[in-house]
UniProtKB/TrEMBL annotation:
Residues 111-340 form the Aminoacyl-transfer RNA synthetases class-II family profile domain. It comes from Exobacillus caeni. This is Phenylalanine--tRNA ligase alpha subunit. It is an enzyme of class 6 (ligase). GO terms for molecular function: ATP binding; catalytic activity, acting on a protein; magnesium ion binding; phenylalanine-tRNA ligase activity; transferase activity; tRNA binding.
């Protein structure tokens, strides 16, 4: 019986050593230590032994059970540890690998130019006023000295919603609204940025929807020289301190006298090139002294108050500044175009 127990121990231990997974260990435990296993069977048969041998044999049987059980526990622990190590090896994260690039957005080039212009005028003491894009005929035309029969009011040129309501064709109605709010008391010093709409066929230089920034200053003793000083400061800050400006006579229904302002060409310095079409000058904006009729319509005494106004197209300014050849680039959301204006690249 002793030899048989020893042999079973040897057999079990060698099987345990050879086992390569948890399942095998579980099977060995059932096979050798289970209720129907050989050791239990042998110990059950101890009754046939002489009485003096029984305790010794019982002790040996229990010792062998304990040895096999310890070996099984030990191997089980080893296998579990190996399984964890294997899993960790497979799931290792290489922290030095480059991450997935995050696509970062940036401000639209038009937004940037508008904000730059706004900042320049805020620096000269102007406030920003914004207003509705759907306007009444009165504020869009009538209050700006564009009476009923004026050619600019042709139904073909504007987006009318009803006979009396339209998409604003310029930001000027907001200047009229602001003056009205001031109830005849100056000073008024605002710039009005915003989207405007005209019925036009889109091409490289025209769009049915575009952006304007207009300015207005009304006060006592506001003169043409004030307009010139403000616009000159703007031109130099925007296009370089070495720029010259020139004012040419022009016509707008809401200003009298009216002017157009050119800057000396930033590409050739005035020599003449393709950017300035050989003239040495580039047209940037229009302006003038607010027409007395326009002041009166919005509640200002034109004998006491005078004012200047001006208007510009940020698309045109951005196109000149960044060499953009087609206005439609601003509206078609091609990321290849938009990405070029990423602040970190400049
Ligand atoms: C009020 C009084 C006067 C606004 C003005 C211009 C001249 C002008 C255009 C330039 C290119 C608009 O973007 S553009 O198409 N504008 O030349 N705008 S004076 O004068 C006003 C406005 C409101 C009450």
């Amino acid at each position: 019986m002793k030899e048989r127990l020893q042999a079973l121990k040897e057999e079990a231990v060698s099987k345990i050593e050879e086992a390569s997974n948890v399942k095998e260990i579980q099977d060995i435990r059932v096979a050798y230590l289970g209720k129907k296993g050989p050791i239990t069977e042998i110990l059950r048969g101890m009754g046939k032994l002489p009485a003096e041998e029984r305790p010794k044999m019982g002790q040996l049987g229990n010792e062998i059970r304990a040895i096999i059980s310890d070996k099984l526990d030990e191997k089980m622990e080893q296998l579990e540890k190996a399984a964890v190590a294997e899993k960790l090896k497979k799931e290792t994260i290489d922290v030095t690998m480059p991450g997935r690039p995050v696509q970062k957005g940036n401000h639209h080039p038009l937004t940037r130019v508008v904000e730059e212009i706004e900042d320049l005028f805020i620096g000269m003491g102007f406030s920003i006023a914004e207003g509705p894009e759907v306007e009444t005929d009165y504020y869009n035309f009538e209050a700006l000295n564009l009476p009923k029969n004026h050619p600019a009011r042709d139904m073909q040129d504007s987006f009318y919603i009803t006979e009396d309501i339209l998409l604003r064709t310029h930001t000027s109605p907001m200047q009229a609204r602001t003056m009205e709010k001031h109830e005849g008391k100056g000073p008024v010093k605002i710039i009005v940025p915003g989207r405007v709409y005209r019925r036009d066929t889109d091409d490289a230089t025209h769009s049915h929807q575009f952006t304007q920034i207009e300015g207005l200053m009304v006060g006592e003793n506001v003169r043409m020289s004030d307009l010139k000083g403000v616009l000159q400061t703007f031109a130099k800050e925007m296009f370089g301190q070495e720029r010259e400006i020139r004012l040419r006579p022009s016509f707008f229904p809401f200003t009298e006298p009216s002017v157009e302002m050119d800057i000396s060409c930033f590409n050739c310095g005035g020599e003449g090139c393709s950017v300035c079409k050989g003239t040495g000058w580039i047209e940037i904006l229009g302006g003038g002294m607010v027409h007395p009729h326009v002041l009166e319509m919005s509640g200002f005494d034109s004998k006491k108050y005078t004012g200047f106004a001006f208007g510009m197209g940020p698309e045109r300014i951005a196109m000149l500044k960044y060499g953009i050849e087609d206005i439609r680039n601003f509206y078609t959301n091609d990321v290849r175009f938009l990405k070029q204006f990423n602040r970190v690249n400049q």
